[in-house]
Specification:
Blueprint (H helix, E strand, L loop, with lengths): L1 H22 L2 E6 L14 H7 L8 E3 L5 E3 L2 E6 L5 E6 L13 H12 L14 E8 L2 E6 L6 H5 L15 H4 L7 E7 L3 E6 L13 E6 L3 H9 L5 E5 L1 H7 L5 E7 L3 E6 L9 H10 L2 H8 L4 E3 L24 H11 L5 E7 L3 H16 L2 E7 L2 H9 L5 E6 L5 H9 L13 H12 L3 H18 L2 E3 L1 E10 L22
Parallel strand pairs: 1-10, 15-16, 15-17
Antiparallel strand pairs: 2-3, 4-5, 5-7, 6-7, 8-9, 9-10, 11-19, 12-19, 13-17, 13-18, 14-19
Helix pairs in contact: 8-10, 9-11, 13-14, 14-15
C-alpha cells in the first residue's frame, strides 16, 4: 500500500511538472532591427545587446534594476587591502549551453580574449587595469591589477564568459553563441527572427519560466504596434516616446518606463577639419537647442543631458553648469569666425537607422544650418553605419549609445587616448590624467571631483555633443508578468517573466 501510494504521488508529481512545462510559452518579441552579430565581445549595437546580454551570456558580476552590482557567475569575491588583487569564487554546477562545465579556465580565457589585440574587442579598455588572470582551482579565479580599479566590478558585468575554446576564434560566436544564460541560441533567420529556447540546465533553479524568446525582426513601427495590440507579440522592448504615446491606453497593453542611461549624441571626428578645431566643436554645442530636440523629437518624454545621465544622481552634473548648453546662435557664429573656417561649414552627418535618431538628426540639421553650417544627412543601413563608425569614417554622426552605472565604463574607453571606442581620435592630456586618477581612486568624493572636471571639459569642447536622455519605455501584453524595464536596456529580467 505504501509503495502504491508513493508511486501515485510520484506519478502525480511528474504529471504536474509536465503540465507546467506544457503551459510555458515562447515569448514573442517585436524587435526593430536585426542584430549585426552575436559575439558578446565584439557587438556594439542595441539589437545585438538585446538578444545576448543577460539572456544568452552572463558575467562574473551583474547589474540589477537599481543599478547596483550583484553576484553573477561569481557567487562571491574578496579584494586585497591595496585593491590590486581580486579573488572570485565561482558558482558550482554551471554549464555552457553545449553541455560542458563552466570553470575558472573559461573565465581566464574570456578575459584574455577581450584583452587580445587580434580580437580587437571594443570592451578592451574596461579591462586595461587587469595585469593577469589566473585559475587558482576550477572554482576560483584571481585577477591581479596593475593599479586599483574602482570600476572593475561594474565593468565585469559587461564581460561575458564564453568557452575557453573560443579564446582565439573571431568568427564562431557571431552566428552561433554559446553562453551560460537562462536561454540558449536555437535559430537565426536573417531579417526574420532569432529564436532562443529555455536552458533546462540553468544554474538558478526554477528559472527561466518561459519556454523561450523569439525576437521577430519587424522594421516598421506601425506593424509592431498592430502586432502587440492583436496579440501576435507580447513585448516591444525599449521603444521610443512616439511609439509609447500611440500605444498608451490601448486594450490589453501596458507600459513600463524608467529614465534611460543611454544618451543621444552628435559625434565629431577630431582628426580632420573642421572638427580638429575645438572652437568649431564648441560652436556645434551653442548652435544646438536641446530642449527643442526633446520637445520635437522625443515628444517631451526626456530631458536635455550632458555626458552622464541624470539617472546617475551621484555622478551627473546639472546641464545648467555647462555654458555652451544655453542655445546661442550668435555665439556659435562668432566661434566659427574665431576658428577661421569658411562658412557655411559643409559637413556630412551619418545617421543610425532608428526613427528617434532620424528625428533628432533632422532637428539638429536645421539648428546647425541656422548657425553657419551646411549639414547633409546621410541615412545608412545599420551594418554600414557601424562599419564606418568603427573605422572613424565620418565627419559627424548621430546615434544613441548605451550608458553604464559607473562613469569609467563610458569615459575611459571613449575619451581616453587610444580608448577601445575612441573612434573620434580624441586625445587630451588633462582628460587622460583625470580619467587615470578617477579609476584608481577608492574614495568616492575624490572620484566625483575628477569626473566633475571631465564633464565640464567634455561638455563644450569634447568630440561629442551630448543631447538628451529619454524616458525609456517598454510596451507589453497585460498577461506578461514579472518583467520590468531596466535603465541600461538589458532584458535580463525576462528570466523572471511568465506569460
Amino acid at each position: 500500500m505504501v509503495r502504491s501510494a508513493l508511486r501515485t504521488v510520484v506519478g502525480a508529481g511528474f504529471l504536474m511538472a509536465a503540465m507546467a512545462s506544457a503551459s510555458a510559452q515562447v515569448l514573442e518579441i517585436g524587435a526593430d532591427n536585426s542584430p549585426t552579430g552575436l559575439d558578446p565581445h565584439l557587438i556594439t549595437a542595441f539589437p545585438s545587446f538585446m538578444v545576448v546580454n543577460g539572456n544568452i551570456y552572463e558575467g562574473l558580476t551583474a547589474i540589477d534594476k537599481d543599478l547596483k552590482i550583484i553576484p553573477g557567475l561569481a557567487e562571491s569575491w574578496t579584494a586585497s587591502a591595496d585593491g590590486k588583487t581580486y579573488t572570485f569564487k565561482l558558482r558550482a554546477n554551471v554549464k555552457f549551453h553545449d553541455g560542458s562545465d563552466m570553470n575558472a579556465e573559461d573565465v581566464v580565457a574570456s578575459i584574455k580574449r577581450v584583452q587580445s589585440k587580434d580580437i580587437a574587442s571594443p570592451l578592451a579598455s574596461r579591462l586595461s587595469a587587469v595585469e593577469s588572470a589566473n585559475a587558482v582551482d576550477p572554482q576560483t579565479v584571481e585577477l591581479k591589477l596593475k593599479e586599483p580599479s574602482a570600476a572593475l566590478l561594474s565593468s565585469l558585468a559587461t564581460i561575458a564568459i564564453v568557452p575557453s575554446a573560443m579564446e582565439a576564434n573571431k568568427d564562431a560566436l557571431q552566428k552561433a553563441p554559446v553562453g551560460t544564460g537562462p536561454f540558449k541560441f536555437q535559430e537565426w533567420q536573417p531579417n526574420g527572427f532569432i529564436l532562443l529556447t529555455k536552458n533546462e540546465a540553468y544554474w538558478e533553479k526554477g528559472l527561466p519560466k518561459l519556454a523561450g524568446l523569439k525576437f521577430n525582426i519587424v522594421p516598421e513601427s506601425a506593424t509592431r504596434q498592430v502586432g502587440l495590440t492583436n496579440g501576435q507579440y507580447a513585448l516591444l522592448p525599449n521603444i521610443d516616446a512616439a511609439t509609447a504615446l500611440q500605444l498608451k491606453g490601448k486594450p490589453n497593453v501596458k507600459l513600463a518606463e524608467t529614465m534611460d542611461l543611454a544618451y543621444t549624441l552628435i559625434g565629431m571626428n577630431v582628426s580632420k577639419p573642421p572638427f580638429d578645431n575645438p572652437k568649431v566643436r564648441e560652436a556645434v554645442n551653442y548652435a544646438i537647442n536641446r530642449q527643442e530636440i526633446v520637445d520635437a523629437a522625443l515628444f517631451g518624454a526626456g530631458v536635455p543631458g550632458g555626458p552622464l545621465s541624470p539617472a546617475l544622481k551621484s555622478w551627473a552634473l546639472n546641464v545648467n553648469q555647462f555654458a555652451c548648453y544655453k542655445s546661442d546662435v550668435a555665439k556659435a557664429q562668432a566661434l566659427l569666425k574665431e576658428a577661421g573656417v569658411a562658412t557655411p561649414v559643409a559637413v556630412t552627418l551619418k545617421v543610425l537607422p532608428r526613427q528617434d535618431v532620424k528625428d533628432i538628426a533632422q532637428v539638429v540639421q536645421e539648428q546647425l544650418n541656422k548657425a553657419g553650417f551646411k549639414v547633409e544627412l546621410v541615412n545608412q543601413e545599420q551594418g554600414q553605419f557601424i562599419q564606418d563608425w568603427r573605422n572613424s569614417n565620418f565627419d559627424m554622426f548621430a546615434s544613441i549609445n548605451a550608458g553604464q552605472p559607473d562613469p569609467d565604463d563610458y569615459f575611459y574607453r571613449t575619451f581616453r587616448t587610444g580608448g577601445s571606442t575612441n573612434v573620434f581620435k580624441y586625445s587630451d592630456a588633462e582628460i587622460d590624467g583625470l580619467l587615470d586618477q578617477a579609476r584608481t581612486q577608492q574614495d568616492q568624493a575624490a572620484r566625483k571631483a575628477a569626473y566633475d572636471k571631465v564633464q565640464q571639459k567634455l561638455a563644450c569642447s569634447g568630440p561629442v555633443a551630448h543631447l538628451t536622455y529619454g524616458t525609456l519605455f517598454s510596451a507589453m501584453n497585460t498577461k506578461l508578468q514579472g518583467y520590468d524595464v531596466m535603465p541600461n536596456r538589458s532584458l535580463m529580467l525576462l528570466r523572471n517573466a511568465s506569460h
